[in-house]
Amino acid sequence: MNNTILIVDDEEMITTTLSSLIKLVLKYNVIVSNDPLEVIENKLIEKYNIDLVISDFLMPKMNGIKFLEYVRKINSEIITILLTGYADKESAIKSINRVGIYYYLEKPWDNNTLIKVIKNGLEKKRLSDELNKKIIELERSHHEVSSLYELQKKHYHNEVENMKGVIMALANVIEAKDKYTEGHARRVAYISKKLGQKSSLSKEQLENLEIAGIIHDIGKVGVSDSILNKPGKLTNEEFNLIKKHTVIGEMICKPLNCLKNCIEPIRHHHEKLDGSGYPDGIKSNKISIETRILTVADIFDALYSDRPYRNSLPLEKVRYIMFDEVHNNKLDGNIVKLLFEMIDNKEITCINEKEKRQFIS
Ligand SMILES: [Fe+2]
């Protein structure tokens, strides 16, 4: 793109000489005026998209400093050069710094110096324009990245909400299937989360534990109602069918990627530390902390609430049974101890239904 230079001087001889020199040596477009007021009135700066202005200092209608001040107000990127007579040098220099003029030259000027100053000034403007362009591009891409991030965040939030919806629906399926376990899944999730927090589990572990608590018995949808809700004692055959709910639960949840970290607690929540549990009979070192917590919460709530074959047991009886299980190397002693400490300190309360339902927010 060719540069355009404006020359303003009340002496026609000077504007003509300068114009010829610049056109001849630099081949730039040149606009000339002998009256700064004419430039202002006719908006020549804007009209010709001026890159550089050379102005005389002493002009009858307007001082060169004031004129260049006006130019810089229109566009501070325009390069401004002031021409001064020797006698005006002192007063001109005082004003130069205030206005921010690029260069001043004394009359009579040296042609080579003037050409060099013009070239350097325009190169400075080119670099400055390029920099401004880059800044605008960066701001635009930053804005685009921010918008994309906001969109992703919204998308992620919707995904989480959807996932919670799926989990709640699964919880409702279990409760509708097994009337005696109404609220059981929610209470297990609540107790597990409380125990997990006290055991310093990570945020991700706590989230998975809470979800696993809700859906740990989802596999019961694969067990017949007559067995699940049987008031009397189960036969061995019936109990073997009930045991299958762990592997059925795993099978149901496996296709859902968002539940991949809940698979292990769902499959193993009936394992015992001594290997006497089901479905795999794995021992303590193979059972994760999340699963051990879930198992304790599950057994506690099963004992402390009504079942098809009996009413809920008193808290002291539950405590006795569970510590007996610890003694027999079935349950994790630290977790059972923590559970009853938290119940005694009212950090876990299983009386208030509302609080039990706070597990998912
Ligand atoms: Fe279960």
Please describe the topology of this protein:
Layout: E1 4-8, H1 12-25, E2 29-33, H2 36-41, H3 44-47, E3 52-56, H4 64-74, E4 79-84, H5 89-99, E5 103-106, H6 111-177, H7 184-198, H8 203-215, H9 225-228, H10 236-243, H11 245-253, H12 263-268, H13 289-303, H14 315-327, H15 333-344, H16 353-356
Parallel strand pairs: 1-2, 1-3, 3-4, 4-5
Helix pairs in contact: 4-5, 7-8, 7-13, 8-13, 14-15
Bound molecules: fe (ii) ion (FE2).
Fe (ii) ion binds at residues 216-217, 245, 269-270.
Give an overview in words.
Helix 8 (203-215) packs across helix 13 (289-303). The chain has two domains: 4-133, Response regulator (Rossmann fold, 3-Layer(aba) Sandwich), CATH 3.40.50; 178-359, Hypothetical protein af1432. It has 16 helices and five strands. The protein has a five-stranded parallel β-sheet with strand order 2-1-3-4-5, sandwiched between helices. It starts with a strand and ends in a 5-residue tail after the last helix. The protein has 361 residues and is an alpha/beta fold. Residues 216-217, 245, 269-270 line the site of fe (ii) ion.
